[in-house]
Amino acid sequence: MSHTSQQVLAELAIDTDLLTETNCALCGCRERRLEFREGPFAIYTCSDCHLTYTSPRLSQSDLVREIYGESYWRSPAARERGYTDYLGDHQLILRTCRRRADLVENHTCAPGRVLDVGCAAGFFLQVMAERGWDAHGLEPSAAIRPQAEERLGTERIHGGFLKGSPFEPASFDLITLWDVLEHIPDPLAALRRIHTLLAPGGVLILETQNVRSLTASVLGRRWHHYKLAEHLFHFHPGTIRQALEQTGFSVHHNHARQAGKYVDLDFALERSKRVMPALGWLLSPLRALGNPVLYVNLFDEMIVVARHQEELPVDFIPQPVGAC
Ligand SMILES: [Zn+2]
């Protein structure tokens, strides 16, 4: 275990009594291959369906209490946990959200009613509201939710989890989860709940990391998405498709090219030096430009576009996605 990981685990001070061993969340299989261990956590891949997951782990309520506090959004060790300065980076995040909104609008019709699950400070919803959408958010972290309430209005932002959320069935045209599904202990239950909240034919768009990407393969256990306390699942195109099809969705697109993020050079250098020192050395001449903004895409994330599939007539003829 790296020194930094030891520091983070010590700082988290997770009571190991709170950690629970778990089987595969997709197929329930107990057979699995150990990928590696770090601290109290291990990464396994299911022998049956090939889902990669963390075990043991915290429950959903313990995750919110132990992990997603104020220090998650302004973390001294974002490689292992949370964000360096989520609110301080708001201009970069907004720029990424505008790019995401462009992609969303390529797969949807006229602005309708959108729910962003895990909306954090509400930046994506702010962009969607600017584009005419009736924007609503769900955010369990009380440390960041007031930011979203300030941006969108308290009546549009809800605390708690998908389970027990106050929304009417079939009341949304679009539901989004940006880097959220891998944090939810029961992703199938979350997707089933999302299915009930989407109107028939509604669109689900989610972004999550691809454990079978070239970047993940090259970096191995140094892969920056192995944040073991918070990233409970590491999907790949096959397992995310299986999860969606098991819960009533059909997958229409899986984009890697659009799944980049805007970061500044300081961030890129800090991350690259940790995982691949040579890359940090290659980027360092850009210092002459100050701290420029870069669009970084390591092709290790997926933006998946899925449609609510049940309720369709048996003679349904699929239309091109995005057709109105
Ligand atoms: Zn499995």
CATH class: Alpha Beta
CATH architecture assignment = 3-Layer(aba) Sandwich
Structural shape: globular
Instruction: Please identify the structural class as seen in this structure.
Output: alpha/beta
The overall pLDDT average reads 85
Number of strands: 13
Percent of residues in beta strands? 15-25%
Order of helices and strands: HEEEHHHEHEHEEHEHEHEEHHEE
State the end-to-end CA separation: 52 Å
Physical arrangement of strands within the biggest beta sheet: 6-5-4-7-8-13-10
Any low-confidence stretches, pLDDT <50, length ≥5? 312-324
Structural Rg: 19 Å
Please report the number of helical segments.
11
How many structural domains are formed by the residues?
1
What would CATH call the homologous superfamily?
A: Vaccinia Virus protein VP39
Quick one: biggest sheet? 7 strands, mixed
Helicity, as a percent range: 25-40%
Ligands in the structure?
Answer: zinc ion
In CATH, the topology is named Rossmann fold
Report on this model:
This protein has 324 residues and is of the alpha/beta class. It has a single domain, classed as Vaccinia Virus protein VP39 (Rossmann fold, 3-Layer(aba) Sandwich), CATH 3.40.50. Helix content is 31%, strand content 23%. It has eleven helices and 13 strands. It has helices at 3-12, 60-66, 70-73, 90-106, 123-130, 145-152, 187-197, 214-219, 237-246, 265-275, 277-283; strands at residues 32-38, 41-46, 52-55, 113-117, 134-138, 157-158, 172-178, 198-209, 233-234, 249-255, 261-264, 293-296, 301-308. The strands form three sheets. The chain has a seven-stranded mixed β-sheet, sandwiched between helices. β7, α7 (187-197) and β8 (198-209) form a beta-alpha-beta unit. The longest helix has 17 residues, at 90-106. It is globular, with a radius of gyration of 19 Å. The N and C termini lie far apart (52 Å). Mean pLDDT is 85; it is low at 312-324. The site of zinc ion (ZN) has 8 residues, from loops.
